[in-house]
């Protein structure tokens, strides 16, 4: 028996079609480093932040966080959870997984208060959303990608919907 495929019906892409959803500026408490056999865990607790964009505006509520594990190869696995509140009062659960790779001197530079430029790092996340608010229910049904810029006690995201 031969397997059949319909993949030839899927167009070849050299770029994903996306639309800009929002930018997010997140303020964080200083990292809590925890050495483990699996790498260094860095826990960042969210103190708040702002969301601005064409599809979503609002704030990040305090108390979420980023639980990052950085392996001996310098590659980090991102695990973010936060509660967003839209400008019109909707509560939205935000969750993102991803990968981060910073330059060898990146941790020292962040500790010194530097911003790591976008082209110096690879910080990509796949945000997902959950809300029962009908005005934002469309968020439950999308695939999103985030590009991040890192600085000491702060992170900026630009989030896109994959069309």
TrEMBL record:
| Database matches in Pfam families | DUF3237
Q: Which family does it belong to?
A: Belongs to the UPF0311 family.
Q: Write the protein's name.
A: UPF0311 protein MPUL_52320
The species this protein belongs to is Mycolicibacterium pulveris (Mycobacterium pulveris)
Q: What is the lineage of its organism?
A: Bacteria, Bacillati, Actinomycetota, Actinomycetes, Mycobacteriales
